[in-house]
Task: structure prediction
Amino acid sequence: MIEIDFMSALHKSTKRDYLARVNDSEFPKARAAELAKQFDFDYWDGDRRICYGGYKYIEGRWEKVARAIANHYMLPDKPKILDIGCGKGYLLYDFLKVIPDAEIYGIDISNYAISNSKEEIRERLYLGNATNLPWADDYFDLVISITTLHNLPSYDLFDALKEMERVGKSNKYLCVESYRNENEKTNLLYWQVTCEAFNTPKEWQWWFNQTGYSGDYSFIYFDD
Result:
């Protein structure tokens, strides 16, 4: 288990006005969060003041992440890859550019995301929950979960980490939101609309130890 960063470059490419999110007259923070937590149209393709404001496929954006992950892990030929919280499947689609013979799978709780996913891989995406993965033990050569597990309450986070550990062999990687100081905590509280697990890196390590999660990890910080 190591901390390895595949995600901060994408995270830092977005500029954020934290006070504007909290104080917006039409979609103040509480209203934005209420809409976002439905993980439906408003979350993915609704107003930018709610969440993504149109989550579209951008050529090359996720390919950089897929390539970095593939280069880091020693994967076999025709690896089985699972993305927990796959959304519209853009990362999985770009994995096929990097590893064309990969056997990809994705799971997400959002029916809207899967219905509006990359058509080329839609049949590989499943509606479901991270707490109950419909695959056998040690089924996957690589299991990833990008900015998803912090959206779970504590009583689900435990099971989700146990499940991620169960279905994957040795190669696992997750990325979650976190904070190291009061400034980052405030920014996270102001900006997030779906986060439920507010943990420092030390607290995340506690969760990993409690659940036996043995994979790698990285943290997203709202430090700007």
Notes: The first helix runs from residue 8 to 11.
